[in-house]
Amino acid sequence: MADLLVTGGAGFIGGNFVHYLNAKHPDTRVIVLDALTYAGNRSTLQGAANAELVVGDIRDTDLVEKLLRDRDITTIVHFAAESHVDRSISGPDAFIDTNILGTNSLLKAARTVWLAGSGKPHRFHHISTDEVFGSLEPDDPAFRETTPYAPNSPYSASKAASDHLVRAYHHTFGLEVTTSNCSNNYGPYQYPEKLIPLFLLNALHGRNLPIYGDGMNVRDWLHVEDHCRGIEACLVNGKPGETYNIGGGAELPNMTVIDTICAEVDRAFAEIDGLAERYPDAPAAKGKATSSLKTFVIDRVGHDRRYAIDETKARGELGYAPHHGFDDGLRQTLRWYLDNERWWQALL
């Protein structure tokens, strides 16, 4: 695999992708460009021997051009984004700046170096989300690549705009691009503002588990390693100009996810010696059920009811298929957080 520039590679999905490359393609050189905002951490990259971190902003077009030229890079995998819906509601501007203007900056740099410069074969792979498609009714078919865009939050609107820019640079300028729209990721290194790590850590510390509305909003859950596998398939087998949906095949109501988290925390305290001493405030440390922490709160503004991914195209054209079942993947994720307390304690 060619050397890569990975934007946002010190974040959750980007960091996992760097580790995936390090394991699967140890000879591949990876340049990580990350601004190290609150969700980007140097420690996420520890152990990735093939990665070099460059601290910088994707909106710095000159910096990106210099990296592409000086390192002779012909592949960009673009993860860098503001991604938390709640933050986009309270402060949309950062999402416009990073997700739209930042993506445009990367595209400009790639066009300058690759099309007006070297003329070498290249690839710009853009990571997007299923949220750009809006909300589904219970009986609606799952999102396909041809589903019309209907974003409902400032976050999803900014990602939709970035998707359109990537498409436009392909059709107008001939830039060789691919885009993948993924479902809800979970796994190691996820910043504890998202549902699964937030509820895991709250449960360990005896804090409430805040459930929006009735808890029956439905999402498709994708283990981050399966997502990395899908991105690799896009780079190897994807056709320029095409988009691919990457899903986990685990469409679940939030309440089911939360109940599974509670059950797995209870299981961990029953199976792991010393856990009660490490986390004495957890209900499970006192012989109580973690589910006792469940608390219903006012629903999020504009909360999409259901997302679902149809990954038929990715399976057929890329050979993609998820390997992780949700129950096993969640159990592995919980055990990772228990084994890597130093990583997340530094964030808190």
TrEMBL record:
CDD domains: dTDP_GD_SDR_e (cd05246). It catalyses: dTDP-alpha-D-glucose = dTDP-4-dehydro-6-deoxy-alpha-D-glucose + H2O. It holds the Pfam family GDP_Man_Dehyd. Residues 5-333 form the NAD(P)-binding domain. One of its GO terms (molecular function) is hydrolase activity. It is an enzyme of class 4 (lyase). The keyword Protein transport does not apply. Its EC number is 4.2.1.46. Belongs to the NAD(P)-dependent epimerase/dehydratase family. dTDP-glucose dehydratase subfamily. This is dTDP-glucose 4,6-dehydratase. It comes from Erythrobacter fulvus.
